[in-house]
Amino acid sequence: MHQNPPNQKCASLPKIKPSPTNPRRSLMKNNIYLASKIAIYILGTIVFLNLLGFMKSVLLGLMVAAGTAWIQHRGWKNQEETKALDNEKKKAYELIDEISRTVGARIYHQTSLAQALRTKDAPHDREAYKSSVKEMNEKYHSICLGLKYSFGSESALSYEALFQNRLAKNNSSISSSASHFSPKNLDNAINELKTINWDLHQFCNHLLNRIRSNEFSKFTEKSPRIDYANREKLSATYLALRLLNIRK
C-alpha cells in the first residue's frame, strides 16, 4: 500500500470565486416581477368590478321583479275588489228598482181606487189594485232580506213602517170610508197616499246616495273605498317597472 511521506503536504484544492452579478439582469428581473404584480392587481380589480356590476344587476333585477310582482298583485286584488263592488252595486240598484216599482204600483192603484170611490165610479176595475196588493205582500220578505243585506236592519224596519204598515192601514181606512161613504175620510186617505208616495221618493233617493258613497253592503264595511286615481298611478308604475325589467 502506497503512503505519502510524512513531511509531504497534500496539495490544496483551488477556491471557486463567485461570478460577479450583472446589474442590468437584476434590474430586468425586478421590473418583470413588478409588472407581474401590477398586472395581477389590475386583473383582480377588473374581475372584482365585473362581479360587483353583475351583483348590482342581479340585485336591481330582483328589486324590479319584486316591485313588479307586488304591483301586479296589488292591481289584481284591486281589480277583484272593484268587480265584487260592482256586483254588490248591481244587487242594490236592482233592489231599489224593485221597491220603487212594487210600492209605486201599489200607491198608484190604491189612489185610483180611492178616487173612484170618492166619485162613486162603480165600473172602476179593481183587479189592478188587487194584483198590486198581492205582489207587494208576496215580495215583502224578499225585499226586507235584501234591505238587511245591502243597507242594514234599520232600512228594512223603515220600509216596513213607512210603506207596508201605512198602506195596509190606509187600505182599511178606504174600505171603511167606502162602506159608509165618507168623502172627507176618502180625501184624507188620498192625501196620505200622496205623502207616502213622497216618502217613497225620499227613501229610494237615500238608498241611492248610500250606494254612490259606497256606504252599503257587508263588503263595503270590510273593504276601504277604492281610489281610482291611486289605481292609475299603480298601473303607470307597474308599466314603468316592466319596461325597465325588459331592458335588463
Oligomer: single chain
Distance between the termini: 95 Å
Please count the helical segments. 7
**Shape designation:** rod-shaped
CA radius of gyration: 49 Å
Beta strands, count: 0
Low-pLDDT segments, ≥5 res: 222-229
Q: Biggest sheet, in brief?
A: none
Helix fraction bin: over 70%
- Taken as a percent bin, the fraction of beta residues is under 5%
- Spell the H/E element sequence: HHHHHHH
Q: What does the average pLDDT come to?
A: 77
Structural class: mainly alpha
Description of the structure:
This protein has 248 residues and is an all-alpha fold. It has a domain at 83-247. It has helices spanning 23-118, 127-138, 140-151, 153-180, 183-212, 217-222, 228-247. Helix 1 runs parallel beside helix 4 (153-180) and helix 1 (23-118) runs antiparallel to helix 7.
For this entry, give a set of tags.
248 residues, mainly alpha, 7 helices
Topology (elements, then pairings):
Elements (H helix, E strand, L loop, with lengths): L22 H96 L8 H12 L1 H12 L1 H28 L2 H30 L4 H6 L5 H20 L1
Helix pairs in contact: 1-2, 1-3, 1-4, 1-5, 1-7, 3-4, 4-5
Summed up:
This protein is mostly helical and 248 residues long. Helix content is 82%, strand content 0%. Helix 1 runs antiparallel to helix 3 (140-151).
